[in-house]
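Tokens help. Consider this.
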Amino acid sequence: MLKEKLKNYKIILASSSPRRQQFFKDLDLDFEIRLKEIEEIFPPELKGPEITDYLSLLKANAFEEDLQQNDLLITSDTIVWHKNCALGKPKDHQDAFEILKALSGDTHEVITSVCFKTKTSFYLINETTKVTFNALSDEAILYYLENYKPYDKAGAYGIQEWIGFIGVSKIEGSYANVMGMPTDKVYNYLNGL
């Protein structure tokens, strides 16, 4: 359905995330993956979705010179927003442990922005989902880190993994967004092209 509608576009997903790549496959889209190393630094005054909007656009702008007439580039960024602080991917095991310890027994927000860029324009969407964790024991956190190694995930966890099954007590908003892509909003935008 969507594939037919987008047949005049060459869809480029600029993400190394296996979850985002799988979402695009599951949406039955034809796409190619292109990657560029981007230093993900944002101005310190930005808050919440301003950060992910900024980083998504920053990633898209890195491809500015490469885009052809029918290209549709899609970039994305996800952060965990907790106590007025952005939590990205953990630096190492200790950082991951401290992040999960801070999220334990509390509510945080998972914010994802998606940028759609063509040769002549761009459009940004973002989504915020509230996630509440049960109190997590040190043993549970260590077990998760040892067995799932979530070092490529914002907030040091994947909701679709063991920690999500035993640790998440409540979710308000898009589940797919917590995995890194608000698929319903992406679909709606692409369907409107």
Observations:
- The longest helix spans residues 49-61.
- The beta strands are 10-13, 32-33, 71-82, 85-87, 107-117, 122-133, 168-172.
- The longest strand covers residues 71-82.
